[in-house]
Amino acid sequence: MDFLTITLLLLVGAGGGVAVANALRKRTGTTDVQRDSVLLLERIEKVFKVVMAEGFFSEIYNYQDQKKILYVLNDPKKAMVIAKSKVLVGFDFAKVRFRTPSEGEKRLVIEYFPEPEVLSIDTDYKFYDIQSGYLNHFNSEDYTKILDEAKQSMNERALQSDLPKIANNQIQYMMYQLASSMGWHLQLPEAHQKQLEALKEKAENDRRLTSGDDT
């Protein structure tokens, strides 16, 4: 058997093996998929942020981009995004300014307390009804823009909801109870102090109603 014959037999055998392997792969419905990921840690920062309220939001976000072809014909592309988010609202205590009391004085004076802010948004996005134009196609920048706009919209909705008010009430009353448990007097900025006094009055009224004490 000469070299040419051996080579032809090897090629035929290899081709048959590939054909059999492909047939088996199609029958089993399995494919080989390779995934590679690289985790990069850029930096670690020390923070003192406290979550005081969380809310769950759903939003339907419609995106449409009009593009003119030859300044005459419209070539629109559009997509619908359904976003479901968990929003955490709280405070950055690094922004708090307080005055150190005199020696022996059990009074904590908060000179500045920050407004509640959105600390994190955990969102699940799903795209529906994606329609590209004839020449106006979607690209990676479009998807990034859509997700950024949807997240910003969710951030604004969270700040317009009751979450900031709930977070404010929570933190003020928590600080008051903590200070009282140690025998300290808590003094907040004027606007916050009025809110705290109202919370204390409401808590006292609720306690009286619960205990049946009308005096």
Brief descriptors of the model:
215 residues; three-stranded antiparallel β-sheet; disordered N terminus; DUF4230 domain-containing protein
Can you walk through the features of this model?
By secondary structure, this protein is α+β, with helices and mostly antiparallel strands. It has one domain (48-211). 41% of the residues lie in helices and 30% in strands. It is built from four helices and eight strands; from the N terminus they run αβββββββααβα. It has helices spanning 3-28, 140-160, 163-181, 190-211, and strands at residues 49-65, 68-69, 73-74, 77-92, 97-99, 107-112, 117-131, 185-187. It has a three-stranded antiparallel sheet with strand order 1-4-7. Strands 5-6-8 form a three-stranded mixed sheet, with helices on one face. Strands 2-3 form a two-stranded antiparallel ribbon.
